[in-house]
Amino acid sequence: MTEREEGVVTEPEASPTGGGAQGGSVDAPLLEAPADTVAGEVVLRLTDVVKTFPGVRALDGVQLEVRAGEVHCLLGQNGAGKSTLIKVLSGVHQPDSGQVEWRGEPVTFANPQAAMRAGIATIYQELDLVEDLSVAENAFLGHEPRRFGFVRRGQMARRTRQILGRLGHAEIPPNRMVRLLPAAGKQVVSMARALSHEARLIIMDEPSAVLAHDEVGNLFRIIRELTAQGIAVIYISHRLEEIREIGDRVTVLKDGGTTAANLPARDTPTRDLVNRMTGRTIEYVFPERPTGAGPAEADLLVVEGLTRPGEFADVSLRVRPGEVVGIAGLVGSGRSELLETIYGARRAEAGTVRMAGRVLRAGSVGAAVRAGMGMAPEERKSQALLLGEPIYRNVTLATFTRYARAGFTDVGRERAEADRIAESLELRPRDVRRPVRTLSGGNQQKVVVGRWLLGDTKLLLLDEPTRGVDVGARAELYQVIRSLAEQGVGVLLVSSEVPEVLGLADRVLVMREGRVVREAPAGELDENTVLDLVMAGSLMEGAAA
Amino acid sequence: MSDVTDTSTPERPAQLPAQSPPVDPAETAAAEQRAAGRLSWWRGESGEGARRNLWLIGVLVALIVIGIVTRPDLYGNSSWVWSNILVILKLASVVGVVSVGMTFVIIGGGIDLSVGAIVALAGVWATTVATQSYGAGGMIFCALTVGLGVGLVNGLLISYGRLVPFIATLAMLVAARGLAAELSDKQTQVSNNATINDIASTNLLGIPLLVYILAAVVIAGWVLLNRTTFGRRTVAVGGNPEAARLAGIDVKRHTLMLYALSGLCCGIAAIMLTAQATSAQAAMANLYELDAIAAVIIGGTLLSGGRGTIIGSLLGVIIFSTITNLFAINGLTTEAQNMVKGGIIVAAVLVQQVQFRSLTQFLGRNRLTTN
């Protein structure tokens, strides 16, 4: 795995102006392209689009420019605003401010139907087809050709056949029930629906996610045929390889804003793309690693051959007391699922989890906690906190039974213990009777971590501990994690921020598509290497081989 | 790199200072309050439940004022007022006991539609000829065991069988009443046990025994909810089941226990109701589930779980029986009564929603200013 992404693209590609129709099946008749669309003309332009929801600024000044006949890729981490942007374009949401220009005119789509009529079709990841209707009925759903109130089935079937031919899939029978088609076939039906509306812009949200490896090539062929007809495509994918193969230009989103627009999809170095996605201007301040021999004791946690089909496979790892082990990987690489399985919140299909030599019962959080594990889950608010309850009750959520006598809680002692934790973590505000919802993100995270400082936690599992945490609190959290390790607690840390993993962990595992692809001491890895490992798509490796 | 980037890093709009210090107006306000002295229970977060209960007491006072205005002749007589209060409390006692169990189930994020049916089944089972032959102790033991047993079945179906609480307890409502009809052969079973029947007629220090039972169950419920690990788990399981699970709490087992507790309360209620009627039949305690749920809801317990008070539920039951009493002393129909009750339920939920909305607005503001 030393080859860089640029080297993988071997085939000649469709040019950015949309001329390439090679690779398409010859018998697919290219029907008339929309005559009034000049290839290369800007069809869609977004200027400073802002969309807020109560408490969240989902879009915060988005710029986007899409040309006819191009494949424009949108890149961004989860929560960067891609989904909201799609919903604004497809008329589900209306922007609060900023301008959407569609084919030269400023527009606001009041509802999805309006966007559809204007010629913008969206193909969502979970395809919105009616499974028990036929291909033709799905393609023309809501605008069936009719006469005297009766659907003209013959005409509908004929036009569907025509559109399917245009997509290079004349073999799909228009009368087949959609339920009976494979995932790739359903996707073709979705596109047929877009074409039945004479769409000029098709938005595809992670279309390859539902496809098997060999079906992706077919998807790309269809996309090329569409663009050759002057149709613009907005393509969203996490897989950089795909973007390099099919994309013309890339726009990168971060925190609801555009951080870079119209980068060339093929030549922009991975590093630049990733930097713009993470947009790091933050100075990471990591505590010093202890020098010397380091932890040499027996293993605390031993995971062997852990597998959950579709999530991760055959993962083995070890954590020693006082060691910080980091797992780097993208969202969807199986890292959070792995952590939750080790913790017993998910049941492993195969493999064992051993704490201090004893095998833990699969799928039992109670067993894991009794063995000395604690976890700070990825979603603080939905997975870890009782937002309306006081801070001290959140801190003692895992331990309040220990302070109880004969089933009666000892609130005084709980408060005292929580006070002590609040003191040592420099929680602000310090008053532990306040409800957790009034705390900032960083302080909420301290509450979650602090929960496991009570009692005798031997191994702490941290899933994205600094997500949504401000810079100052981040440094404090790093300090807390390091000092825990110095006290002999083992830490298993998951983060999508590579510098965080490299800076904090003693040893690093890199995960991609459910597998550990590299394990090394943090000192032997640099950010570039890890990013390459993390982003590389095994999909294209397979195709290139 | 820069020559290919058309609009890289556009100027951020100035609405949000990028690195504003995390100052929270609510926080500073609270800090000022703390500086001035301790946060009063009234303004503080912990006073939230007390504030809501005060609202209920206000409703109760308003109902009494309406009583005084409409029947000044009765309210002028102090011995009548005292005995009327006891009438209202006695009226509230059976549903009150059921509501305590219901409060736990709803705070724990569930619902129990089968309570009325469990009361009927427990009452019928306790008054069969065979059970009555074991005497008062046997009848009480039978009612409690049946209540607990049916509650356990509910709990098993919901926690381990993964049925939706609404469906599981709806099915139990139908099935338990069916079994009760089967057991009693659709007849009214008269209780011949004097000890049981005396429960409803005995007064201690001038107060009916039924009211003491209600008081005992309410106090036990309050202690259980507010002072024990069981209560703490209930709030955690209802407030955020995933967080509770990941903190090592056995959510399934606890859910099972909540429904068992509700069933046990129904068993107690069955004895009380059988004593009052000196008989039991399959149709008894009809629609108690609605009375209990309504009382819990107007008592300020969130239907989505995670928050609620026993005292609020008790006040809810007392408000309902006061309305019934008010209509009775004015000679009005039960139909009009039901309409007023319906109105009160709607009003209570509206009040809850307004509180909820202001809460989410507060949260939204909070987040924008801190991040």
UniProtKB/TrEMBL annotation, chain A:
Cellular component GO terms held in the UniProt record: plasma membrane
Single Gene Ontology MF annotation: ATP hydrolysis activity
PANTHER family: CARBOHYDRATE TRANSPORT ATP-BINDING PROTEIN MG119-RELATED, GALACTOFURANOSE TRANSPORTER ATP-BINDING PROTEIN YTFR
Region Disordered: start-end pairs: 1-28
Matches recorded under PROSITE patterns: ABC_TRANSPORTER_1 (PS00211), ABC_TRANSPORTER_2 (PS50893)
Main location: membrane
The name this protein goes by in its record: Monosaccharide ABC transporter ATP-binding protein, CUT2 family
SUPFAM superfamilies the UniProt entry points to: P-loop containing nucleoside triphosphate hydrolases
Membrane topology: Peripheral membrane protein
Compartments (UniProt record): Cell membrane
Domain ABC transporter, chain residue ranges per copy: 44-280, 295-538
CDD domains: ABC_Carb_Monos_I, ABC_Carb_Monos_II
InterPro entries: AAA+_ATPase, ABC_carbohydrate_import_ATPase, ABC_transporter-like_ATP-bd, ABC_transporter-like_CS, P-loop_NTPase
Superkingdom in the source lineage: Bacteria
Record keywords, A-Z: ATP-binding, Cell membrane, Membrane, Nucleotide-binding, Repeat, Translocase, Transport
UniProtKB/TrEMBL annotation, chain B:
Transmembrane segments: 52-69, 81-107, 113-131, 138-157, 163-183, 204-225, 256-275, 310-329
InterPro entries hit by this protein: ABC_transp_permease
Intracellular or extracellular location(s): Cell membrane
Record field: compositional bias (Polar residues): 1-10
GO molecular function, one term: transmembrane transporter activity
Leader sequence residues: none
Taxonomy, superkingdom: Bacteria
Region (Disordered): 1-27
PANTHER family for the chain: ABC TRANSPORTER PERMEASE PROTEIN YPHD-RELATED-RELATED (PTHR32196), RIBOSE IMPORT PERMEASE PROTEIN RBSC (PTHR32196:SF72)
UniProt name for this protein: Ribose transport system permease protein
